[in-house]
Amino acid sequence: MTLRKTAKELGISLKTSFYLRHKILSAIKFHIGVDNLGGVVEMDETFFAESFKGDHKKGNPDWKAPRNSGLSRKRGKQVDYRGISHEQVCISSAVDRNGGIVLVPAGNGRLTTKQLSGVYNGKIEKSSTICTDSHNAYKSFAKSIPADLVQIERGKHKNGVYHINHINALHNKLKLWMKKRYGVATKYIGNYMYWFNWSERNSNIGWRTQGKALIYDSISSMLVLTRVDIRKTKPFET
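Above: the chain sequence. Below: its structure as tokens.
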């Protein structure tokens, strides 16, 4: 449900509905963490437009968006710059053949080797085979593990028996799933990545059972989280 429908169903305020959602999602994020990956690992990145939704107070004429122009975007217009730019949030993603999934916001703009090392520090088994596109950041990253690297040339779908079809399919599902969320503030996008990750892991069970499993997983560890903590959420932790 949307936050408004949830608030109405539970008889709570919209603000309380928002904080309850992010308390649960923060607990799920803590519960899942970053998967250990091994064997054949497909890696890539996808992007979402940077958003400062909810950062301003309604009716404040002096508020300026913390982007270069200082202006709010017109409805339907996502970014001002063509191609990959600082106005886009990079989601570093990976899957392996054992069902491991990683979806972590890495930073603004194009992915760097430093960001890759921060996200996957100690999480990829040595001697794994990393399959990815031709982005240069993966070359130094693979050497640091060390792992074999197979890169798919631009315009091609595979390199011998290796491909990145699974990660591309995951990105397509993620984009459709996020579209139904009607825009997510960049500072909270990490919570939504872990929510989608959790949903993919539990896609083989019915929605009623999923609801129970979500609550069980969110209380599996002790996590102290206040409204202030949620407001201070940072989008990038690497």
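The two ends are 31 Å apart (CA to CA).
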